[in-house]
Amino acid sequence: MKNRLVVGVIAVTGLFAGVTAASTAAPVGVAGPVAITKPCSSSYVHASLSWGHKCLREGQFCKVGNREYRRYGFYCPSDGHLRRR
Q1: How many structural domains does the chain have?
Q2: What is the dihedral of CA 57, 62, 66, 69, to 10 degrees?
């Protein structure tokens, strides 16, 4: 009876040691984070704006007066639709 108890305790201890070692080990062959960007069709301009990535095109709705569009060759007049500079 005592031998079975000792064997059981050793088995459970070894099981927990294997689980913690496996959870702390770094994965092998995994590259770092990859930036995924949305591809834009040829008539659009890909823009990385403060509120996210966006495909811009003349005539789309925009945030009036926002100067971030200038970097990509657009501006947003008071009518709220993108225009080329």
Answers
A1: 1
A2: -10
